[in-house]
Amino acid sequence: MLNLSNLSPAYGSTKNEKRIGRGEGSTRGGTSTRGHKGAKSRSGYKRKSGFEGGQMPLQRRVPKFGFTNINRVEYKAINLDVLAGLLEKNSATTLDAAYFVAAGLVSKNAKIKVLGRGEIATAVEVHAHAFSKSAVEAIEKAGGKAVTL
């Protein structure tokens, strides 16, 4: 009968650990499989990350270009057709950042920009950090209001 007291791994599925540095008789004494001399044979050896044996490393071969603007503001885009889909599911009068977070469209700290793809038929007040011109026109045409945070 098979139970926890007599479980063992399948034959050939496990190997014994190499016992390194345990004398010449073990065949792994002496240099302990590290070869003779050089940095790699010594304790504390650590190769620099990206080192390619003296060859010019990829990191230095590839040219640098462009720059990162530290003042760039990244918006999460939400289109009108997405808003219309949300309004079909439940009839809200205002769509604000907390509503979008609850709907799973944006993360808590994201800045929101409403874009003009699609159409919206319901009059609704939309609160966001930015709007495209076409989105504002479409929201106001439907009788709603676009409020910039």
Automatic annotation (TrEMBL):
Composition bias of kind Polar residues appears in 1-14
Physiological role: Binds to the 23S rRNA.
Where would I find the Large ribosomal subunit protein uL15/eL18 domain in this sequence? 78-147
* InterPro entries xrefs: Ribosomal_uL15, Ribosomal_uL15/eL18, Ribosomal_uL15/eL18_sf, Ribosomal_uL15_bac-type, Ribosomal_uL15_CS
Q: Which SUPFAM superfamilies match?
A: Ribosomal proteins L15p and L18e
Q: Which family is this sequence assigned to?
A: Belongs to the universal ribosomal protein uL15 family.
What name goes with this protein? Large ribosomal subunit protein uL15
The alphabetized UniProt keywords are:
Ribonucleoprotein, Ribosomal protein, RNA-binding, rRNA-binding
Question: Region (Disordered): which ranges?
Answer: 1-57
Q: How does it assemble?
A: Part of the 50S ribosomal subunit.
- Give the compositionally biased regions (Basic residues): 34-48
An example of a Gene Ontology cellular component annotation for this protein is: ribosome
